[in-house]
Write a structure and sequence with these properties.
Blueprint lengths: L2 E6 L4 H12 L6 E7 L3 E7 L2 H8 L8 E7 L14 E2 L5 E6 L5 H10 L9 H15 L4 H11 L4 E7 L5 E7 L4 E4 L4 E4 L11 E4 L4 E6 L4 E5 L4 E2 L4 E2 L15 H7 L1 H9 L3 E2 L4 E2 L8 H5 L3 E6 L1 H18 L3 E5 H4 L10 E7 L5 H12 L3 E6 L5 H5 L2 E4 L12 H21 L4 H22 L2 H11 L4 E6 L3 H16 L2 E6 L16 E5 L6 H13 L3 E7 L4 H5 L2 E5 L7 H19 L18
Helix pairs in contact: 3-4, 4-5, 7-13, 7-14, 9-13, 9-16, 13-14, 14-19, 15-19, 16-19
Bound molecules: 5-amino-5-deoxy-1-O-phosphono-D-mannitol.
Length: 612
């Protein structure tokens, strides 16, 4: 939520900031702004995307080699010019950019109003910068001390950067609950919400920790202290990200590129972890905690959105392969439910970004009760990865499209490897089955490649259905989460209302919706419950619903019943989600494009949900 980028050094700041904002735009795109210092503080901001900001500043003074910039996903106040960041302090000598939520902003604001301050915006952020300046003036302290005192009064989450006309050689950045990365270049610093704006300039980064404040000076000095004034030594990490992964590489959209990357991303998730020839599955990142998983009385999976759907697939996998009971929880519900957590519980947190506020809070809660936390994240060095006792990165590469695609299949790949590894060590899978499964998962990238060849057929199908108002997605067993994910993908990028259901649940309510206008996507590859899926199709047909069936190549029975069929390669039931998801991603993509929707930046959404 919200993208932050800042620069201090010898170069012109604006081009660096604007390029950085474009990279961060996936995090929020309802308004954008920049503040630059060249003796005087210039601040420009507007509602709309970063391109609107570029138009706005076309005839303005954008010189200066220190600056801060922001792309917003509104939390407080509607997305308009005034609520856009940066925000000035009352004297207009300070400006701030912020990602997060100041929960006690209303109390702070009324105290400030009582002292005579007025506010232009409805944001919590403007309250914070007013508070900082108030402290600076009334307590006669320097800017750093004022920030420190203010942050001790703040409840909530923040990643902030502050620029000051009185301190032209310094930026101040601080973090709690929202991510902030500092790029350490040759005599220059960048600060950003993630590493994507930094990678062009340096691979050396420092991840700011909770309640840390950094002072970045033009002479190349980086000082970090906590809000309680404890000195911290910056630890410099090396980025492994490749620049090419941040470009569209000839595709019309990041989402399409990321769908097509899946043969590679699934292979990368398995790299160094699966050796099918030698019969080895080993996840280095969890080795020290494997016994915890083997002896776990229960696994709790916490996640949100698409990652939660991957968690549901994980439930089926772990229960089948390890015989450990699994509960899959929406992180947002789990954290506020006073859940029962035992010390021998293993909590698996799944998150592409590794920054989702609810998931992070859920694992902090579980950790405080003594549970073991295993993280499955895509973003290296992210908060959830760091908060976990152990974990496995998905290695899917940066996912820029707001709709998650390759991260989902990478998460399922990791869950499959994890369940196979634990199951084989626990003795809950026979050796012959183990070999069958690992050989099959080894062949999945080629099968995904083959599935992607359905693209043309799906584009034609999309034309047929682009104008419908509702869609139903059905699946049983491993295909139930696939149905949920198919429906989520469609609704978030095409704005068509779509629901996913376990196929057998249809008769308990949703069947009332079925008529000749209702397309029903049914994933009908199940071996165990094939006949039952056919009955579900018959139920839809009897009410004149249109069936789009995902079937296994060579299928006959469903083919005879369905209005449209999509044939995917044969695989074992537990791996079908890795294939069946692909046509559903493509269907959503093409429908959204044909409806003229902004596929990579769907309305109201943001890639990384760092607020509750
Ligand atoms: O970064 P995370 O995986 O924790 O994000 C969770 C959800 O916000 C995310 O999956 C969301 O549902 C996507 N827009 C789905 O495409």
């Amino acid at each position: 939520m919200c993208g932050i980028v800042a620069y201090i050094g010898p170069r012109e700041a604006y081009p660096i900031l604007i390029k950085g904002l474009h990279r961060l735009e996936y995090r929020g795109y309802d308004s954008a702004g920049v503040a630059l210092l060249n003796g005087k503080l210039h601040l420009y901001k507007t509602h709309g995307k970063v391109s609107e900001l570029e138009k706005l500043v076309a005839d303005k003074d954008i010189s200066g080699n220190i600056g801060i910039a922001h792309t917003r996903w509104a939390t407080h106040g509607e997305p308009n010019d005034i609520n856009a960041h940066p925000h000035y302090s009352p004297s207009k000598k300070l400006a701030i950019i912020h990602n997060g939520i100041i929960e006690n902003y209303a109390t702070l604001k009324s105290e400030l109003i009582n002292r005579g301050y007025t506010f232009e915006s409805n944001t919590d952020t403007e309250v914070l910068i007013h508070l900082i300046e108030d402290i600076q003036v009334n307590e006669k302290v320097n800017l750093f001390e004022a920030v420190q005192i203010a942050l001790n009064q703040v409840i909530g989450a923040y990643a902030i950067v502050i620029i000051s006309q009185d301190y032209p050689d310094m930026l101040i950045a601080a973090k709690k609950g929202s991510p902030l990365v500092i790029g350490v270049g040759e005599g220059e610093f960048l600060v950003a919400s993630d590493a994507t704006p930094i990678i062009d300039y340096t691979k050396n980064v420092v991840y700011l920790e909770e309640e840390e404040i950094a002072i970045l000076t033009r002479n190349g000095e980086l000082k970090i202290k906590t809000i309680k004034n404890k000195d911290k030594t910056p630890y410099v990490h090396k980025l492994e990200m490749q620049l090419s992964t941040l470009e569209k590489s000839g595709y019309d959209h990041f989402m399409l590129k990321e769908i097509y990357e899946q043969p590679r991303s699934i292979r990368d998730s398995m790299r160094g972890r699966l050796n099918a020839q030698k019969g080895i599955v080993s996840l280095g990142g969890i080795i020290d905690y494997e016994m915890k998983l083997i002896n776990a009385k229960r696994i709790i999976i916490v996640a949100c959105g698409t990652s939660w759907h991957a968690g549901l697939v994980g439930e089926y996998l772990f229960e089948e392969l390890t015989r450990i009971p699994v509960e899959v929880e929406y992180a947002s519900e789990f954290r506020y439910r006073n859940p029962i957590i035992y010390e021998d519980d293993v909590v698996i947190a799944i998150s592409q970004s590794g920054e989702t506020a609810d998931t992070l809070a859920a694992i902090k809660l579980a950790k405080s009760k003594g549970a073991t936390i295993i993280g499955i994240c895509n973003v290296v060095g992210s908060s959830i990865a760091r908060e976990s006792h152990a974990g496995s990165y998905t290695h899917a590469g940066p996912e820029i499209g707001v709709a998650s695609t390759k991260a989902f299949t990478a998460q399922i790949t990791i869950l499959t490897l994890m369940a196979l590894s634990i199951g084989s060590k626990k003795g809950t899978i026979s050796t012959s089955k183990f070999y069958q499964y690992i050989n099959e998962i080894d062949s999945i990238p080629e099968k995904v490649e083959k599935t992607l060849k359905l693209s043309k057929q799906i584009e034609i199908l999309a034309k047929e259905f682009k104008d419908v108002r509702n869609f139903l997605y059905l699946g049983r067993g491993y295909n139930f989460p696939v149905a949920l994910e198919g429906a989520l993908k469609l609704k978030e990028i095409s704005y068509i209302h779509a629901e996913g259901y376990p196929a057998a649940e249809m008769k308990h309510g949703p069947i009332a919706l079925i008529d000749k206008e209702m397309p029903v996507v049914i994933i009908a590859t199940n071996k165990g419950s094939y006949e039952k899926v056919i009955s579900n199709i018959e139920e839809v047909k009897a009410r004149k619903g249109k069936i789009i069936a995902i079937v296994t190549e060579g299928d006959v029975a469903v083919k005879n019943l369905a209005d449209y069929i999509i044939e995917i390669p044969e695989t074992i039931e537990m791996l079908v989600p890795l294939l069946a998801t692909i046509p559903l991603q493509l269907l959503s993509y093409y429908i959204a494009v044909m409806r003229g929707c902004d596929v990579d930046m769907p309305r109201n959404l943001a890639k990384s949900v760092t607020v509750e």
